[in-house]
Amino acid sequence: MDDEHESEYLTSYLLAELSPDASIRSAAAQATKLVEEFSIECSLRADIYKQVLAVYNNPEEMHNLCAEDKLVVERMMRGYHSSGISLPKTKQEQLSSIDKRLTELIAAFSNNVNSDHTTLFLTKTELAGVPSDFFDGKHVVKTSGSTKYVVPITRHQTAIVLRFATLESTRRAVHIASSTRCPKNIPLLQEAVKLRLQRANLLGFSSHAHFTLEDLMAKRPETVQNMLEDLQEQLTPQAKRELAQLRYLKHADAEAAGVPFTGLYDWDLDFYMRVAVEHKHRVKSTEVKQYFAYPHVIGRIFTAFEDLLGLRIAKVDRPSVWHPSVDLYEIWDAKSAEFLGHCYVDLFQRAGKFTGAATFQLRSGFDRADGTREYPAVALVTNFALLPPLPNKPVLLGHASVKTLLHELGHVFHNILSQCKWTMFHGTRVPRDAVELPSQTLESLAWNPNFLRRIAMHYQTGEPIPDELVMGLGAARDEFAGVSLLHKVFRAAYDIAIYSSSDGNLDVGKLYTEMERSIELANTDNVNTHGLSTVRHFMRGYDSRYYAYLWGQALTADMLATRFAGTNIDSPQVWAEYRNIILKPGGSRDIMAQLVEFLGRKPNSKALLKSVGL
Q1: Tens of pLDDT along 245-284?
Q2: What are the C-alpha distances in Å from 266 to residues 70, 526, 580?
Q3: What is the pLDDT of residues 56-87, one digit of tens each?
Q4: Residue 226 CB: number of other CB atoms within 10 A?
Q5: Distance CA 592, CA 582 (A)
Q6: Does residue 10 surpass a pLDDT of 80?
Q7: Residue 116: partners with Cβ closer than 8 Å, 6 or more residues away
Q8: What are phi and psi of 390, to 5 degrees?
Q9: Catalytic residue among 126, 408, 443, 520
Q10: Which of these, 77, 104, 344, 490, has the minimum number of CB atoms within 10 Å of its CB?
Q11: In the annotation, is 408 catalytic?
Q12: Cα 187 to chain center, whole Å?
């Protein structure tokens, strides 16, 4: 797809995921499908391939190209070979058919998640312990003489109940409802795994993972598997100690209530981790959120990054947007006054909307043929609350929501501050195992004392966040890191397992349950759950590359310990280097060369392991 027309595809994809109008979502999804099918057909255009091949095979012409132009030719050649351009016509047709079917499967999987309406009806007694603002905007029904709240089983709503509901029966019901959604997605993933193996085999690879990892830092699935096995071995003893601590807390609660202790289950983990952290570090979640009121907090976050990254960020009045709750910001370079791009902010839940947190591209930045610049536009999307803020009632974001906001802003700034000649390398179009580096770098600021003091202010009194809360949050960061990291190890191990297998008929549901219990030490009381059916990553973009989150976490920890330690976290000079070396090139440079330049050496995982006590 050429630079000039890519934005049409990106816009249709965004509307298919975010428009409040079901008819527009449907039309946009169909348009997206047509464009993707057209792109598949273009990848088999022999006439264009011959032109690119002629340039590639001409040493003098390649030598005269600038570095980015040369990389474009090399990347196009890899793309043509990935499409099967050099294969016999019958195999090309097979690949094209597989690619078009995968497009359908991916769209169906996403639509099933977005349109899922799993709901529970719970009384206020059943929701005891849940913060009062959880009930804002909730529908109420009368049944059998009881007033019940309609609780949509979305990621954000589920997380609140699992962290705060004191009744185990409520936590159990919500966890099971959340973990058994979208069962019809399981056969879609099953088919996608089989088709991707067939596709890899047609191209001469033994598995989909061998095909996708060839151009990434990891290179081979064996490298990923070895890393994950090593992490599992190191983390499991620590996770078992942490689970024993949680088991003790639950046992004590059962004893105090005079009820039998039946065990520690998956639906207990978030609740007792919160209890343990609040007791040890004197950090109450309900108190912390009073210092993160939206919309004020996003203004202070943007002000902080204006200082750190040398920007000017201005909110646009009365923007043209797809929903009234969406805001639009212009981003400029503070020193040169150069316009850099637009950022839409869409944070609140609504029917039919994409249900997770993500950064969507609307336009990539590139140099037009006439010498002018096309500027990027992105949409930062989350699902924090059922209602947007009212004039006299802000939305109080929990610390976890602030962490998510910062994570997505890492992707936003990667896209906005990237300055490449071609869309092919714009922003987050880096090797997949490097894409989470900027997001996790900014996410880490959610625990940094200096950054917290910049952004956190009480929504009623205007008082800055107290030092004891700041220090408590920082101290609590690595609590239960064993359990947390082991969850990522499990997902990455499952992902690489289904896509490195030479058996296209392996049971993806059964394997998920087996690995969840053996790696993550999950205990669902023998209830058959299937969390894989709502994890989009396995289906699109991160297939065989979910390990990128752990890989990025290791790189981030190294950068923080090496370049952002101490007062350097507030240094505009260090952030300017980060902006110019890590963000600005997008994918137009070798990522390892960028890291070596920024760190002054090759990266390693020592800082990550040290941070979790290993």
Answers
A1: 999 999 999 999 999 999 999 999 999 999 999 999 999 9
A2: 51, 11, 43
A3: 999 999 999 999 999 999 999 999 999 999 99
A4: 12
A5: 10
A6: yes
A7: 153, 181, 182, 355, 534
A8: -100, 165
A9: 408
A10: 104
A11: yes
A12: 24
**3-class SS at 77?**
helix
CB 293 within 8 A of CB 395: yes
Q: How many residues does the chain have?
A: 614
Element counts in the chain: helices (H) and strands (E): 24, 12
The secondary element (H helix, E strand) that includes residue 254 is helix 221-257
DSSP 8-state symbol, 364: -
Strand partners, 314: 330
Q: Which two tokens stand for residue 588?
A: 């137009």
> CA–CA separation, 202 vs 200, rounded Å?
5
Instruction: For residue 256, give Cα distances in angstroms to 125, 250, 251, 261, 270.
Output: 19, 10, 9, 11, 20
The amino acid at residue 336 is S
Q: Which amino acid is at 442?
A: L
The mean pLDDT value of the chain amounts to 94
User: DSSP assignment, residue 359?
Assistant: E
Asked if 543 and 210 count as a contact pair (C-beta separation under 8 A), the reply is no
**pLDDT tens by residue, 499-554:** 999 998 999 999 999 999 999 999 999 999 999 999 999 999 999 999 999 999 99
Structure tokens at 404: 């998510």
- The answer to whether 363 and 391 have CB atoms below 8 angstroms apart is no
Place of tokens 């202790």: 261
Q: Report the C-alpha dihedral over residues 289, 291, 296, 301, rounded to 10 degrees.
A: -100
**What is residue 216's DSSP assignment?**
S
pLDDT at 612: 76
Q: Is 333 a residue whose pLDDT tops 70?
A: yes
- Specify the pTM: 0.93
